[in-house]
């Protein structure tokens, strides 16, 4: 899209309201992000622990163990995507 505005004029423009900007930069949003980061990294650590337990203790059948490992993989991929989204959001708001 072409515009007649200079780069300085475009930088001054905001695509959100002041209230939304305040909400996104509030202390509660920062607490939310910190809590989410803790949960994401706890998922990674606990998944490694769970995978080791599944490998060492042969309580489940092979099919059940395979499904549990795939579920752990899915949880880690999901958390990795969420982490990437959160990190990219933090880069944009800083």
From TrEMBL:
User: Could you state one GO biological process linked to this protein?
Assistant: sensory perception of chemical stimulus
Asked if the keyword Secreted belongs to this entry, the reply reads: no
The entry lists its GO molecular-function terms as: G protein-coupled receptor activity
Localization, per the record, is: Membrane
Q: Which UniProt keywords apply?
A: Membrane, Transmembrane, Transmembrane helix
Would I find Oxidoreductase among this entry's keywords? no
Q: Which family does it belong to?
A: Belongs to the nematode receptor-like protein sra family.
The protein in question is named: Uncharacterized protein
Classification from the root reads: Eukaryota, Metazoa, Ecdysozoa, Nematoda, Chromadorea
